[in-house]
UniProtKB/TrEMBL annotation:
<feature type="compositionally biased region" description="Polar residues">
    <location>
        <begin position="400"/>
        <end position="413"/>
    </location>
</feature>
<feature type="compositionally biased region" description="Low complexity">
    <location>
        <begin position="414"/>
        <end position="429"/>
    </location>
</feature>
<feature type="region of interest" description="Disordered">
    <location>
        <begin position="387"/>
        <end position="436"/>
    </location>
</feature>
<protein>
    <recommendedName>
        <fullName>BTB domain-containing protein</fullName>
    </recommendedName>
</protein>
<dbReference type="Pfam" id="PF00651">
    <property type="entry name" value="BTB"/>
</dbReference>
<dbReference type="Pfam" id="PF07707">
    <property type="entry name" value="BACK"/>
</dbReference>
<dbReference type="InterPro" id="IPR051481">
    <property type="entry name" value="BTB-POZ/Galectin-3-binding"/>
</dbReference>
<dbReference type="InterPro" id="IPR011333">
    <property type="entry name" value="SKP1/BTB/POZ_sf"/>
</dbReference>
<dbReference type="InterPro" id="IPR011705">
    <property type="entry name" value="BACK"/>
</dbReference>
<dbReference type="InterPro" id="IPR000210">
    <property type="entry name" value="BTB/POZ_dom"/>
</dbReference>
<feature type="domain" description="BTB">
    <location>
        <begin position="44"/>
        <end position="149"/>
    </location>
</feature>
């Protein structure tokens, strides 16, 4: 099915009314001549300044008025003057004298004002885009126009606005066959300008239904980044959208990058964050979640914690409270979060059952979310996490080597000193293995 459609209104007809008579109609030639007429400003008597850029579009008033009642009223029907009140009776004679004496002058003035309909007029059209209005004027002058997806919505609404029913029906018929993957974004983008018109609402619904059925294809289109933000939100929020969650995230990320390129002062983290509520991250495979999305640093840590907890079929409660440890009770100036953090490197959280991890430890808010993200990701899919990230501080300190000395005393007054050197222990163990 072609993307463009030529809509003729009249046809070339050869007919014989009587045996010795023949009727010849060259409507194609007439259409070409009328198109040429509209392209010559010196032959036109009205200029429309269209759109935000006030682009000039010329036309012939008589043709417009003959084809559209709306244009006839706009161009030829002046507003009716207000009726004046009758003067007081005592002034009637004086006014009658003045009227008769000035009648020639008034007639001269009226004669100069009457031909305004024949003078060149300039009107401003703000409702439609220049390309749309130019196609409308071409149709009115020639009886044919080439419909295309980019301007289809505008032409259809303009035809309805100016009372051109045949053109409106032609546009409505063309809509049925022009909605495809290549045109869907152009149709949605044009709908933004004409959303207040009734013709737009019915067409947008058909376009959105197409998007629902071809979600993955539409979201991967480069033209998807050209859609307004609220249209992108509308698409991602639709429950009927048949697209996987990672594709939805990629589409949001692609749109955000394009937006930030056009608006350098914006943060992509904030822009992408506007769409995250419409993406179900717990449905994205763990490996993809941890290797493709998590390293970007665009999303809050708790989002990954909740998504990964769901994947291991555990739900946690955020309302749990905790009681401070005795150490912190005796030392009020000590921050329990910092204190516990000193020992977290020795705990392999990925080996703690998920139910305990999420119900007993996570609600305390004592540990970085990254610990839970890596632990849960490992439990959901061990290949999705670098082993070094499960306890990074511990690995780093083991590589550096360290020693520890502890001195204690018992009730009997004896003192005991224990010393430990991790590097020496490792070296001695290596020596034993080598000797063996």
């Amino acid at each position: 099915m072609p993307d463009n459609l030529l809509v003729p209104v009249n046809y070339i007809i050869m007919a014989e009314a009587e045996p010795d008579l023949s009727t010849f109609e060259n409507k194609t030639g007439l259409a070409e001549d009328m198109k040429f007429l509209a392209s010559m400003p010196e032959l036109c008597d009205v200029t429309f300044l269209v759109g935000d850029t006030r682009e000039p579009v010329c036309a012939v008033k008589a043709v417009l008025a003959a084809r559209s009642r709306v244009f006839h009223k706009m161009l030829y029907q002046a507003p009716s003057p207000q009726r004046r009140k009758d003067p007081p009776p005592r002034e009637n004679k004086l006014r009658l004298f003045l009227k008769r004496s000035s009648e020639p002058l008034l007639n001269l003035q009226n004669a100069s004002q009457q031909p305004t309909s024949q003078q060149h007029q300039t009107l401003i059209i703000e409702e439609f885009e220049p390309d749309v209005f130019r196609q409308l004027i071409e149709y009115i002058h020639t009886g044919c126009v080439t419909l295309q997806p980019r301007t289809l919505l505008g032409v259809m609404n303009a035809a309805d606005y100016y009372g051109l029913d045949e053109l409106r029906r032609a546009c409505a018929g063309f809509v049925q066959c022009c909605i495809n993957v290549d045109t869907v974004c152009a149709l949605l983008a044009s709908a933004e300008r004409y959303i207040q018109y009734k013709c737009t609402k019915s067409l947008v619904q058909k376009v959105l239904e197409f998007v629902d059925e071809h979600g993955n294809e539409v979201l991967n289109l480069g033209s998807f980044t050209l859609l307004p933000q609220h249209v992108v939100r509308l698409i991602l929020a639709r429950e009927e959208l048949q697209a996987d969650e990672f594709t939805k995230f990629q589409a949001a990320l692609m749109w955000g990058k394009k937006y930030c390129d056009n608006n350098p002062n914006t943060s992509i983290k904030e822009v992408v964050g506007n769409f995250m509520e419409y993406i179900q991250f717990h449905k994205i495979p763990t490996n993809v979640l941890m290797r493709e999305i998590y390293p970007l640093g665009l999303l809050p840590q708790n989002l990954f914690v909740n998504a990964l907890a769901y994947q291991v079929h555990i739900y946690h409660c955020d309302t749990l409270t905790y009681v401070g440890k005795k150490y912190c009770d005796n030392n009020p100036h000590i921050n329990i979060k910092e204190l516990i953090g000193n020992f977290s490197e020795y705990i392999e959280f990925h080996k703690i059952p998920t139910n305990i991890l999420m119900n007993e430890i996570y609600p305390l808010g004592l540990l970085p979310d990254a610990i839970f993200v890596n632990a849960l990701a490992f439990q959901a899919d061990p290949t999705s996490v670098d082993p070094g990230k499960l306890s990074p501080n511990r690995v780093r300190r083991q590589a550096q080597g360290r020693s520890m000395s502890v001195q204690s005393s018992d009730p009997y007054g004896s003192n005991t000193t224990l010393s430990s050197s991790q590097s020496s222990e490792l070296a001695s163990s290596d020596g034993k293995h080598s000797s063996n």
